[in-house]
Amino acid sequence: MSAVTQPAAGPVSVPVLELYLTERLDLGCLAPVRAALDAAVRLCPDRLVLDMARCAAIDAAGVALLLDVHRQLVRVGARLTLRAPTPRLRRILRISRVDQVLHVVPEEAPAAGRPVERSGGAW
User: Fold this and answer.
1) Which domains, and CATH codes, for the chain?
2) Which residues form the STAS domain (predicted)?
């Protein structure tokens, strides 16, 4: 009889994980977005970047979700970055003072040699 050994099941870790939000971030769309963000957090990224350039609107439920994801990542030493929110979203984040808690950045240039692809993967 021979023993079969399997590699230890440890957490997967990635340096940067990017997700593109192409729909509204409100109560009506929250369930699939939460599922995608939960799956992303389980990958243990050092930095989770949520591109919000195509997100038309956000409500209190969406803000609460972002804060929850932020808290989860901070607990493990990681960071949530909101990239390229529209002027309307930036205003909402500023009025609610969430921009003082979350890391919000304008559109970043892609890394050299990295293609920019914005199609597919919408939720």
Assistant:
1) 16-105 (3.30.750.24)
2) 16-102
| Residues 27, 30, 31, 32, CA torsion sign | positive
Beta strands 16-20; 79-83: pairing state:
unpaired
What's the distance, CA 10 to chain centroid? 22
Give the C-alpha separation, 110 to 89, whole Å.
Answer: 22
Per-residue pLDDT reduced to its tens digit, 2-54: 344 444 455 557 799 999 999 899 999 899 999 999 999 999 999 999 999 99
Q: Is the pTM of the predicted complex or chain greater than 0.85? A: no
Quick count: other Cβ atoms within 10 Å of Cβ 12? Answer: 9
Q: To 10 degrees, what angle do helices 30-42 and 60-75 make? A: 10
Centre a 10 Å sphere on the Cβ of residue 42 and count the other Cβ atoms it contains: 11
Report long-range pairs for 92-101 (Cβ below 8 Å, ≥24 apart). Answer: 92/58, 92/63, 93/58, 93/63, 96/63, 98/63, 98/66, 98/67, 101/67, 101/70
